[in-house]
Here is the input.
Amino acid sequence: MANTDKQVNELIKREYEHGFVTEIESDTFEPGLSEDVIRRLSAIKNEPEFMLEWRLKAYRRWLEMDEPEWAHVHYPKVDYDSISYYSAPKKKEDMLQSLDEVDPELLRTYEKLGIPLHERAALAGVAVDAVFDSVSVATTFKEPLAKAGVIFCSISEAVKEHPELVKKYLGSVVPAGDNFFACLNAATFSDGTFVYVPKGVRCPMELSTYFRINAANTGQFERTLIIAEAGSYVSYLEGCTAPMRDENQLHAAVVELVAMDDAQIKYSTVQNWYPGDENGKGGIYNFVTKRGACIGKNSKISWTQVETGSAITWKYPSCILRGENSVGEFYSVALTNNYQQADTGTKMIHLGKNTSSTIISKGISAGHSSNAYRGLVKFGPGAEGARNFTQCDSLLIGDKSAAHTFPYIETKNKGAILEHEATTSKVSDEQMFLCRQRGIDPEQAVSMIVNGFCREVFKELPMEFAVEAGKLLEVSLEGSVG
Amino acid sequence: MLSIKNLHATVEGEEILKGINLEIKAGEIHAIMGPNGSGKSTLSQVLAGNETFTVTQGEVLLDGNNLLELVTEERARKGIFLAFQYPVEIPGVSNMQFLRTAVNAQRQHRGEPEMNAAEFMKLARETSKQVDLDPGFLKRGVNEGFSGGEKKRNEILQALLLQPRLAILDETDSGLDIDALKVVADGVNALKSKDRAVLMVTHYQRLLNHIVPDFVHVLADGRIVKSGGKELALELEERGYGWLGINETAAAAS
Here is the structure.
């Protein structure tokens, strides 16, 4: 009650840690979007003709689309002509040959963020693609991965080096015209990560991309494409941060995953974009489309996300379960504080026989924030024997925050089985009193209780990041006991 | 060690404690008895620093220092331990993690090094056997799905691990069958030491067959109306509260 709220509120007040700005010279486009801007973008990246055509087609389509308004979020209309669509740190040469040529200022930036890019200093067993504003600045461990046959590079590089794969799969899961933000991304995406795991290969290390927005008034539009051929396995993690700025910044990404027969993709996100200040000023608009297609039999796609940042999150990592016996999973922790708004969830589209999906969503709302789970479970006519289990738990901290649950179910198959559980709870005074009576600080008590609430999701994260995610929650909760 | 003088406390404006006086010395075991609604549980909660209650008058000294100016966790670190009547669940937080966090929080404040996971696990396993809890309980969520008896034994386990100066047991015997009562009593008896005091709040005399108190106090309508030795508990069992001028039903209704 009152006392606990006060403690929570004090807890939540901690400052955003990654809010610094890197002083670096950049090539930045003038704000505004037009066919000419897209041509320049494509030219700067030396893209083949097919790519430019694809972008232009998307752009023309986008001009005719309306921004969606159905989500449970409120924000002033974005002026798409006030955003710069390309910003890249200036380079001395055209292409980086090795990490030694990366601007030391950039290396220091990533080090400060806890992502050392030098392979000798890097986290053992994790390869990193570092995306800074609009471009990929470095990709580590490319050689050992290449030996295993795994392609891990920036998407710009893939467009040039592996055009056949890009042509075949880009837009195959999230078509250019899928939705307003995805379409904007198709027209303007500047970089992102490409992963290809050949048949039967178990990717020898964790792959990850670290997204950093640095420049002001710039949107980040990255695109990630992961293809897992039959019998392969890959685990991929993305992390994101941005400086503290009073203006809102747009991040509209698209992620596409393709899993063939018996392939498995594990995709984890730790999203910590700048959430805005305690009065709700500034912060990132995170409008993201993520979708995976389980094309093959017995394939599996698993999304795990820990969302603590962004002023607004609009994001529904989904699975299209086409292959027989294919499996889709969604494990989510979404924490909102102060004036943050999140409308996030998943779509599980069951098309094939005996497909199954699991949704575990944990929403934590503190401060004046609003946190909505929105999910769709759909069973097509061919989804004989399909099943879904959904569990949505909300935890409220304080008495000014809100939690909403919007579960949608569509079924065209009577044989499908669906289970749904939902709970809403509060960090109770009794729990706080018990912890404090044992000598535990209130801050530590809240973070322990919240971590306990999220345990089912955290255990799905790769080991190195589960610890990180726990700490991140602690920071995001500062100032917030309920 | 603990000195309570003219303690008054209210909850939501209603006065529950109306002038409690009590002296507890190290090494002693005190029992507080009384009908429902007499203020027994309130006294334990107030001593532990539950902010739902407001102290309106009086003082409480622990080793000569004002206890009432300390917040809950500071009191805990000074050695006040409360075994809850209804221990709350903390889903997803393992008992082991909870206990280790508590023990280390207290060690840290005493300037002692933290115990690492392996050291602590060994200690916790041994101690859990002492209260007849399977070490498997340490992996489960705090009180999550525990039976009433298991919750109470878990409270005693915490007392044994935290080694408090003053252990307050709030109706620790309620809801226990005779075997569980014996286990809990053995745990409490293991706590006994010349440096430590125990304050037992209980409705029934039966716990006192297993844990023999040095003093028994009868609480009625927010005041201690009679104090005596262990024989007072037996007398209460035989004669009820009526002979002390306490109307049990009326007290319960308040």
